[in-house]
Amino acid sequence: MDFDLTEEQRALIDLVDQILADHCGHERLTGLEKEARGSGIGSVHDASVWRALADAGAVSALLPESADGGDLGVLGLVLLAEAAGKRTAYLPVVAAVALGALPLARFGGHTDLLAAVAAGEQLVTAALEEPGEPTTLTTTARSSGDGYVIDGAKSMVPYGDLADSVLIPAELDGEPAVFVVPRSSMEVTPLLVTGRQPYADLELEAVSVPGTALLARGAEAVDWIRDLGTLALAAEASGICTEAVAITARYTSTRKQFGEPIASLQAVSQRAADAYISAEVLRLTMLHAAWLMDDAARGGETAPSAEISADIAIAKFHAGDAGSRVLHAAQHLHGGIGVDTDYPLHRYFVRGKQVEQTLGTATRQLLRIGAHLAE
């Protein structure tokens, strides 16, 4: 089998890498962080680079041909998220694409909004988390005339304070449904998180929306959006870990003790090798799950939905568990400089921690995987 990227996928990554290399160096990211701390809560959004990616067609390339896109789909998404993770760029790849553009394209009905997102003119995200148990949907929607009225609260919404519209899952007539709701109609509380990306809590109190706001009905729609967001986060974690290992390899190859590079020490080389293997396992499981999900979205029959969900859970487990081991190893092998907040590795560590905290505990993923194996 040929596991190489297609010409279109390689062209996408080359384009994205060039833009990020030109605009997401350590000094510029440091400047953005200082500017954010001085002018607000401290969250960072690199609007100019996001618009540059959109202008270059990096977002529209992922959309289906029916939406005038390049049809690179889920695999294109994870490659884009991985590239952003390697640069620790402050970009809404997960929020605007995995939780916004691709769901809009899949379920249809909001052509103008999707075009604006693809052009970088608007942001759309999804509010999947609520206070309390993660499997409980307490936000409700009820019919009112030709539209709906929504009540509830959402927590830890990525780009929830900057998005123009938010996909809101709510209970409607005894089943989950997803609505497209303007952010201006909700009460927004911005949050400062570990990775410094924009997050917010949202409250909806008798929010009225038209009938066209209904995007999709059924638990499968909500699960699909959640799985896609999970895969994008795992891809971002893969990029973060891959680059952290590369930074560590360069450092240990040039840092000398007693006249020899510390990479020549057995304990150092073994720890670095373990980190490399963990990063590769994360990337392999992430790409495998993305391939299965992409094939299913195109009408393939490679695996049932339960198996795809289990593979996504495996990638999710490695993104949190193995990702944490990789980043701790990278810090330890750097010695004191590893915890210096002015050194680039620190940004990789906190971004990796943010992904780990967002994805949840490893135990929950193991239980999900075990339940699938027991069937």
From TrEMBL:
Its cofactor is FAD. SUPFAM superfamilies: Acyl-CoA dehydrogenase C-terminal domain-like, Acyl-CoA dehydrogenase NM domain-like. Coiled coil: none annotated. Pfam families: Acyl-CoA_dh_1, Acyl-CoA_dh_N. InterPro entries: Acyl-CoA_Oxase/DH_mid-dom_sf (IPR046373), AcylCo_DH-like_C (IPR036250), AcylCo_DH/oxidase_C (IPR009075), AcylCoA_DH/ox_N (IPR013786), AcylCoA_DH/ox_N_sf (IPR037069), AcylCoA_DH/oxidase_NM_dom_sf (IPR009100). Keywords: FAD, Flavoprotein, Oxidoreductase. Residues 227-373 form the Acyl-CoA dehydrogenase/oxidase C-terminal domain. Residues 6-109 form the Acyl-CoA dehydrogenase/oxidase N-terminal domain. PANTHER family: ACYL-COA DEHYDROGENASE (PTHR43884), ACYL-COA DEHYDROGENASE FADE28 (PTHR43884:SF20). Belongs to the acyl-CoA dehydrogenase family. This is Acyl-CoA dehydrogenase.
